[in-house]
Design brief:
There is one protein chain. This protein has 992 residues and is of the alpha+beta class. The chain has 34 helices and 26 strands. The strands form 6 sheets. Strands 7, 8, 9, 10, 11, 12, 13, 16 and 17 form a 9-stranded mixed β-sheet that branches. About 3% of the residues have low confidence. Its main location: membrane. Part of the Sec protein translocase complex. Interacts with the SecYEG preprotein conducting channel. SecDF uses the proton motive force (PMF) to complete protein translocation after the ATP-dependent function of SecA. It is a multi-pass membrane protein.
C-alpha cells in the first residue's frame, strides 16, 4: 500500500482529535449527573445549579482550560427521545400577517382568497404561494394586489413598499419579503422567550421558507405551561370597562330575548345596581327566575361586581359567546355600547355556592368599552420592561415600566378612570388578567402592575413574554412531541444493550469465519466507532434513538467492505497467487474496490435523500448512517490493510479462513437462471397479493401521515385495550387503543380537535384524557403527575405527539418524493457506472419488488402482529434504507456478472452468468447475514418505539438478498438482446 506512513499519520491524528472531541461529552455528562444528584429531581434547582457554574473552569487539559458553557457546547447532544423534553413545530400564521399588511382589508376577492388558500393548500406548498394562486383565480384580472384597498395602502407605501402601479408579480416579491421579515421577527421573539425559560441547551431554528419554527426544549417537563408560553401572542392592551350597573339593562334584555327562542316567556325584572343577583329578582317575586327559565343567567355560577358581570363555568363560555354574538342580542346595545367587547378573564377556582366548600373552575365575564375602530384605550407596545414581583398583599404580580409616551397615555387613562370611578382592564391575548380601579388619582411615571390569581411560575412566564415583546402573528403548534425522561432513559438502555450485543456477535462471527483477518476487521471496526462518535461530537450532531440504530447498522456495514475484500483475497489465493499478490489484487480497482465504491455510492445516495427529506430523529438516523458509511470505508480499506501488511511483512500466515469456514461455498453450483420462471411466478404472486391487500386492507397509517394525537400511556397494572377504547370513544368521538410493549401500556390515538390550534385545545384534550382514565389509577395520581414529565416517572403519559393535517400532508408528500427520488437517482447512477441500461432496469425491478413486498407484509399483518406496524416517517426511513441495502447487494452481484461477461470464462451465456452469481455467494450471504444479525438484535433489544421500524428493515434485507439473486439478475439477462448474448459467447469461446 502506497503512502502507508501518511495514512498512519492521519489515522493517529484523527483518533486523537476524536478522543479530544469526545472528552467534552464525558466531562459534561459527569457535571450534569452531579447537578441531577444535587437537585434531587427538582428541574428548576438543576438548571440554576448548571447556570451558576456556567462560567467556571471545569476542564483543564494542561495547555488550555474550558468553562462549563464551553464544554456543554462541544458535547454530543442527546435528542428528545433520549433526553426527554418537548419538541414543537410552530406555524406562524401567514394569513394573519397578510391581514395586517392589508390593514384588515374588507375586499371580497382578498378575503375569499385567504379562505381558499386555507382550504386548498397542497402538501409542501407554502400558505403564501397558495394565497397568490387563489387570488389569481378569484381576481381573474379584475382586481390587483396593488389595489389601494389591499396592499397599496398607506402603511405599505414608500421606498421598498407597494404602489398602485405595480403588477401582481412585483407586489408578490414585496409581500414575500414582508412576510419573511415578520417570521424573522417572530423567530427573535420566541428565541428571547425560550432563552429566559430555563432549560439546558434549548434549540430553535427556522424550517426553510415555510413560516415554521422548530423549538426543542430538552428536559422540559411542564407541558401545558410551555405550550402557553410558546403560543401566546403577547398582545398587551389596556381597555376601559363598563361597570355592571352600566351594562345591566342590556343583560336583562338579552336574557329576555333569549327566552323567546330558548325557553318559555317570563316577566322582565327591574334593574338594580350592584350585582346580577339584583338584576334577576326583586323583593316581590323571586319565582320568575327558577332554573331553566333564564338561558343567560342560569349559566352564572357566582355573582360579579364592579367590572365583573358574573362568573361562569369554563365549559359554558362557548354557549355564552354564542348568545352574545346573536344578531337579535347585539341589536339591543344602543349608543356607544354597540361597540362593547365581551371578553373572559383568566381562569380561576372559587368555592361552589351549592356544596359550600368544594372548589370549582370559573371565569369572569367583562364588557370592554370598544369603539368604531375596535382599538384599545392604550396599546401595550409602550411597555419597555416587566418584572415578576409581589403586590401589597404579598401575592405574586407583574410590574411593568412604560416609555415616556406610554407614561403620558397611562396618566391620562388612569385620570379618566379615577374621575369616573371606573376600571381599567389589562388584557393579554384577549384575556383579562386584572381590572383594577384607580382610587388615588392619575398614575404618573409609567409604572403599572398586573395582579390577580397568579402563582410565582405564572408571573415569571408573564414577565418573560412581556419583555420579549409580542409576536407579529399567531403561532400555532402544528406538530408536537413530548417525551418523558424515564422513557428517554429506557431508550438509552435499550440502545446500549442492542449496540453491545450486536458488536459482540458481529465481532465473534468475523473471528470464527476469517480467523486472524477477522481480528483485523474487528480492530478496524473499533477504530471506526471512535471516528464515528468523534465526528458526531465535532459536528455538534444530535444523537437520537434511530441514530443509535444507525450506529448499530454501521457495525454491520463496517465489515461489509472487509468481507468483499477478504472473499476476493481467498479467490486469488485459490488461483495460486502468493499472499502479498492476493492482497494487492483484492484491494485493486479490478478486485474489490469497484464493487465497494458502487455499493457504497448507492447507499450514500439513498442516505442523502433520507437526510434531505427526513426530520427530527429520522435526520439523526440519516446523519449517523452517512457518517458511518464514510468512516467504515476508511477503516475497512486503510486501517485493516495496515494490520494485514504488517502480517505479510512478519509471520505471513494469513489465509482468510478457519477450519470452520474453509470449505464454505467453495464448490457451490446452483442454476439461478434455470429456476427463473419459478422465482418470477413466486414474486408475481407476492406482488399481486401485496397490491390487492394494499388496495383493500390498506395500512395502519400513523399520525405522521393522517394527522392526529398520539399518547403512550402506562398504567399501574395490566389494562384491557378494548375497554379503554370504548371509554375514550365516548369522550373523543373516535379513538384507538392498542397494547404497546407490556400489557400495562397502551398507545392511544385520536383526531379530536387536531385541527384546532392553541394551547387551550391541547390542555383540554389532556384533561379529558385524564378524567376518562383516572379511575384506572390510584388516588394519588393527580393531573400534573399524569400529564407532566418528572424524573423517575413510570405511570401516566410517557410520550405524546400531535401532528396537524397540513404537516401530515407535507410529510406524506415528502415520503413519496423521497422513495421515488431515491430509486431514480440510484438507477441513474447505475446507468452511468455500468454503462448499460439493463443493469439499472434489473436493479430497479429488484428494488420495486422489495418495496412492494415490505408494503404488502405491513398491509397484511398490521392487524394481528404483537407490535406496532404503522406507516410513518420511521417506516419511510426503513424503506429508504432497504433501497440502499438492496442496491448494495445487487451491485455486488452485478459487478461480478460484469466481470465475468468481460472476462474469458468458457460456456454459454447462461452458464457464465450462473458462475458469476455462484462466485459471489460467500460475499452475499456474509454481508446479508451480518446485517440480519444486527437488525435482529435491535428488534429484540431496541425497544418498542423502533420495533416496527427495525422489522421493516429486517424483512427488507432478507427479501433484498433474494431479489438480487433471483429477480435482478434474471431481469438483466432477459433484457440483453440475443445478438449481444451471441457476441459475448463467441468472444468467450473463440479459443475453445
Amino acid at each position: 500500500m502506497q503512502n502507508k506512513g501518511l495514512i498512519k499519520f492521519f489515522a493517529i491524528l484523527f483518533a486523537l482529535v476524536s478522543i479530544y472531541q469526545l472528552s467534552f461529552t464525558f466531562v459534561s455528562n459527569k457535571i450534569q449527573g452531579d447537578a441531577k444528584s444535587f437537585a434531587g429531581g427538582n428541574t428548576e434547582k438543576e438548571v440554576k445549579y448548571l447556570d451558576s457554574i456556567g462560567k467556571e473552569k471545569v476542564f483543564n487539559l494542561g495547555f488550555t482550560d474550558f468553562t462549563y458553557n464551553e464544554v456543554k457546547d462541544k458535547q454530543i447532544n442527546k435528542g428528545l427521545d433520549l433526553e426527554g423534553g418537548i419538541n414543537v413545530i410552530l406555524q406562524i400564521s401567514v394569513k394573519d400577517i397578510l391581514k395586517g399588511l392589508s390593514n384588515n382589508s374588507k375586499n371580497p376577492v382578498f378575503n375569499k382568497s385567504l379562505a381558499d388558500a386555507t382550504a386548498n393548500q397542497k402538501g409542501n406548498q407554502t400558505y403564501l404561494d397558495a394565497f397568490f394562486e387563489a387570488f389569481e383565480a378569484n381576481a381573474n384580472g379584475t382586481t390587483k394586489l396593488a389595489s389601494p384597498e389591499i396592499f397599496a395602502n398607506r402603511s405599505l407605501q414608500g421606498e421598498g413598499g407597494v404602489d398602485f402601479q405595480m403588477t401582481d408579480a412585483q407586489v408578490q416579491k414585496v409581500i414575500k419579503r414582508k412576510v419573511n421579515e415578520s417570521v424573522e421577527s417572530a423567530f427573535g421573539v420566541l428565541r428571547e422567550r425560550i432563552d429566559k425559560f430555563g432549560v439546558t441547551q434549548p434549540n430553535i431554528q427556522k424550517i426553510g421558507e415555510t413560516g415554521r419554527i422548530l423549538v426543542e426544549l430538552p428536559g422540559a417537563k411542564d407541558v401545558d405551561r410551555i405550550k402557553r408560553l410558546l403560543q401566546g401572542k403577547a398582545e398587551l392592551q389596556f381597555w376601559e370597562t363598563y361597570k355592571i350597573e352600566e351594562i345591566g339593562n342590556f343583560l336583562v334584555a338579552a336574557n329576555d330575548a333569549l327566552k323567546k327562542t330558548e325557553v318559555a316567556k317570563v316577566e322582565t325584572k327591574k334593574v338594580a345596581k350592584d350585582t346580577l343577583s339584583a338584576l334577576l329578582t326583586d323583593e316581590k317575586d323571586s319565582t320568575a327566575t327558577k332554573a331553566g327559565k333564564n338561558p343567560l343567567f342560569d349559566k352564572i355560577i357566582a355573582q360579579g361586581g364592579g367590572p365583573v358581570l358574573g362568573m361562569f363555568s369554563p365549559k359554558d363560555t362557548a354557549v355564552v359567546n354564542g348568545y352574545l354574538k346573536r344578531q337579535e342580542v347585539k341589536n339591543l346595545l344602543a349608543g356607544e355600547q354597540r361597540y362593547a367587547k365581551f371578553v373572559w378573564g383568566k381562569p380561576t377556582t372559587i368555592e361552589d355556592a351549592k356544596t359550600k366548600g368544594k372548589k370549582i373552575d370559573a371565569v369572569e365575564l367583562y364588557a370592554l368599552k370598544g369603539n368604531r375602530n375596535d382599538a384599545p384605550s392604550m396599546a401595550g407596545g409602550v411597555v419597555t420592561d416587566a418584572t415578576d414581583t409581589f403586590d401589597q398583599m404579598g401575592k405574586p404580580a407583574v410590574s411593568m415600566q412604560m416609555n415616556s409616551k406610554g407614561a403620558k397615555e397611562w396618566e391620562e387613562l388612569t385620570g379618566r378612570a379615577y374621575t369616573s370611578k371606573g376600571y381599567i382592564a389589562i388584557v393579554l391575548d384577549n384575556v383579562v388578567y386584572s381590572a383594577p380601579g384607580v382610587s388615588s388619582g392619575p398614575i404618573s411615571g409609567g409604572r403599572s402592575e398586573i395582579s390577580g390569581n397568579f402563582d410565582i411560575t405564572e408571573t415569571k412566564d408573564l414577565a418573560n413574554v412581556l419583555r420579549a415583546g409580542k409576536l407579529p402573528a399567531a403561532a400555532d403548534i402544528v406538530q408536537s412531541e413530548v417525551v418523558g425522561p424515564s422513557l428517554g432513559q429506557e431508550a438509552i438502555d435499550n440502545g446500549t444493550t442492542s449496540a453491545l450485543v450486536g458488536l459482540l456477535l458481529v465481532s465473534l462471527w468475523m473471528m470464527v469465519y476469517y480467523g486472524k483477518a477477522g481480528w483485523y476487521a474487528n480492530l478496524a471496526l473499533a477504530v471506526n466507532l471512535l471516528f464515528l462518535f468523534g465526528i458526531l461530537a465535532s459536528l455538534g450532531a444530535v444523537l437520537t434513538l434511530p441514530g443509535i440504530a444507525g450506529i448499530v447498522l454501521t457495525m454491520g456495514t463496517a465489515v461489509d467492505a472487509n468481507i468483499i475484500i477478504y472473499e476476493r483475497a481467498k479467490e486469488e489465493l485459490r488461483a495460486g497467487k502468493t499472499l502479498n499478490e492476493a492482497v494487492i489484487a483484492s484491494y485493486s480497482w479490478k478486485g474489490a474496490m469497484r464493487s465497494i465504491v458502487d455499493a457504497n455510492v448507492t447507499h450514500i445516495l439513498t442516505g442523502a435523500v433520507l437526510f434531505i427529506f427526513g426530520s427530527g430523529p429520522i435526520k439523526g438516523f440519516a446523519t449517523t448512517l452517512l457518517i458511518g458509511i464514510v468512516t467504515s470505508l476508511f477503516t475497512s480499506i486503510f486501517i485493516a490493510r495496515i494490520f494485514i501488511d504488517r502480517n505479510i511483512a512478519g509471520k505471513n500466515d494469513l489465509s482468510f479462513v478457519t477450519n470452520f469456514s474453509k470449505n464454505f461455498f467453495t464448490n457451490f453450483h446452483f442454476n439461478f437462471l434455470g429456476i427463473k420462471k419459478w422465482s418470477y411466478a413466486f414474486s408475481a404472486i407476492v406482488t399481486v397479493v401485496s397490491i390487492i391487500s394494499i388496495a383493500t386492507n390498506g395500512f395502519d397509517q400513523g399520525v405522521d401521515f393522517v394527522g392526529g394525537r398520539t399518547f403512550q400511556v402506562r398504567f399501574e397494572k395490566p389494562i384491557q385495550a378494548e375497554e379503554v377504547k370504548e371509554e375514550l370513544t365516548k369522550v373523543f368521538g373516535s379513538a384507538e387503543a392498542k397494547v404497546f410493549g407490556n400489557d400495562n401500556q397502551l398507545k392511544i390515538t385520536t383526531k379530536y380537535k387536531v385541527q384546532v390550534n392553541g394551547s387551550e385545545a391541547d390542555e383540554e384534550v389532556n384533561k379529558m384524557l385524564y378524567e376518562t382514565l383516572k379511575k384506572h389509577y390510584s388516588a394519588g395520581v393527580t393531573y400534573d403527575k399524569f400529564v407532566n414529565a418528572y424524573d423517575g416517572k413510570n405511570i401516566g403519559v410517557m410520550y405524546a405527539s400531535k401532528v396537524g393535517p397540513t404537516v401530515a400532508e407535507d410529510i406524506k408528500t415528502n415520503a413519496y418524493w423521497a422513495v421515488l427520488g431515491a430509486m431514480l437517482i440510484v438507477g441513474l447512477y447505475l446507468v452511468i457506472s455500468f454503462r448499460k441500461w439493463q443493469y439499472s432496469l434489473g436493479a430497479l425491478a429488484a428494488v420495486a419488488h422489495d418495496v412492494i413486498f415490505v408494503l404488502g407484509i405491513y398491509s397484511l399483518c398490521y392487524k394481528f402482529m404483537p407490535f406496532g406496524m404503522e406507516i410513518d416517517q420511521h417506516f419511510i426511513a426503513a424503506i429508504l434504507t432497504v433501497i440502499g441495502y438492496s442496491m448494495n447487494d445487487t451491485v455486488i452481484v452485478f459487478d461480478r456478472v460484469r466481470e465475468f461477461l468481460d472476462g474469458k470464462t468458457k460456456g454459454n451465456f447462461g452458464e457464465i452468468v450462473n458462475n458469476s452469481i455462484n462466485s459471489t455467494m460467500s460475499r452475499t450471504i456474509n454481508t446479508s447475514l451480518t446485517m440480519i444479525v444486527v437488525l435482529l438484535i435491535m428488534f429484540i433489544f431496541g425497544g418498542e418505539s423502533i420495533r416496527g421500524f427495525i422489522f421493516a428493515m429486517l424483512i427488507g434485507i432478507i427479501v433484498g438478498t433474494y431479489s438480487s439473486l433471483f429477480i435482478a439478475t434474471p431481469v438483466l439477462v432477459d433484457t440483453i438482446s440475443i445478438a449481444d448474448k451471441k457476441l459475448i459467447e463467441e468472444r468467450h469461446n473463440e479459443n475453445k
